[in-house]
Amino acid sequence: MRPHGMSSMAISSFLTILVLVLATSVPAPVSAFNITKILAKHPDFSTFNEYLTKTHLANEINHRETITVLALDNSAMSSLVSKGFSLYTLRNVLSLHILVDYYGTKKLHQITDSTTTTASMFQSTGDADGNSGYVNITDLHGGKVGFAPADSDELHSFFVKSLLEMPYNIAVIQISQVLDSAEAEAPTPEPSSIHLTSLLESKGCKEFAGLLTSSGADKTFQDNIDSGLTVFCVGDNAVKSFMPKYKNLTSGNKTALLLYHGVPVYNSMGMLKSNNGIMNTLATDGSNKYDFTVQNDGESVTLKTKVVTAKITGTLVDKDPLAVYKLDKVLLPRELFKASKIADEATAPTPEAESPSGEEADGPDTSDDDVADSTSGKHKKNGARNIKGGGFVGVGLALCYGVLAFL
Description:
single chain; 7-stranded mixed sheet
């Protein structure tokens, strides 16, 4: 029996709106492409694919929303590899072949005024001087399209064919030759030659660097650079404010606290923004998780523990295999400090809410009772997300059944 005053048209309109609301509540995938899998379908580009992986550029590409890859076939890569460049120099050269904008075949032949200049990933590293990290694209007569570094006057590489286009996310197109650039080919220091504490001292983290040295934790950080390392250093003022609590820690817990500010994997800013979730640290050891949650809101990235939320305030170094970011607060692991009351009472395992005062919890509490249980935090977080997503669908279905019951 239909309720009084409800016409078939009104019910139909209501259901249509409900379907649209449910559709827009479904989250979009973080990345819609995988450059390694794309190139694996083209054996003639196996060497190019191999070096994108070795230089970690493949991961960078996959975490971009819009990208154009100027792919080199095995013959062109052979001439490049034969020059004997280090892996880190090869990374610079290949990053010049990754454009941070979309250029499919159609767009290449519709360039305004026949020429344009666009930024490459080499430019975004900060290692490119002047305009050497930009690439000139020119639409020539007869359907040809030429490419050259912006600091070069000569077009020596040309469009050959398109391998894949997903407007306006990714275009993978073949060019005839390597883009020669003296700037990109300049010798690049090996990561192991970087003295981390000296770098931190020169970038506004002198107090934090001093703690690393005095505790001996600096060696662990230094030993992890070659294999990939992300460091979250704390500004001088924040460290000075934290020193009364730091002095109350045992020697072993001081080291654990400092190692908590390092992640044994390279994470660019783009990767941090797209890889929200649980992250293990240099202090992680079996049941002593020493992990935190990475979250972003637009351009802002925060690190959340059960005790405190710290914000990334600057990028000091972001060059694979080392990334160093500056924080506004010391990260306080729940294994050493009392969790905030709000975090303890929260039903979700990931701390969503913060104390209104934003103050750090009192501590330290070094008892083993505060060590996390054996359930994986990552699984908990994913479960919480599933519940939230399922909630939207469940509510929608309930409303649909409720309406249909009146029909």
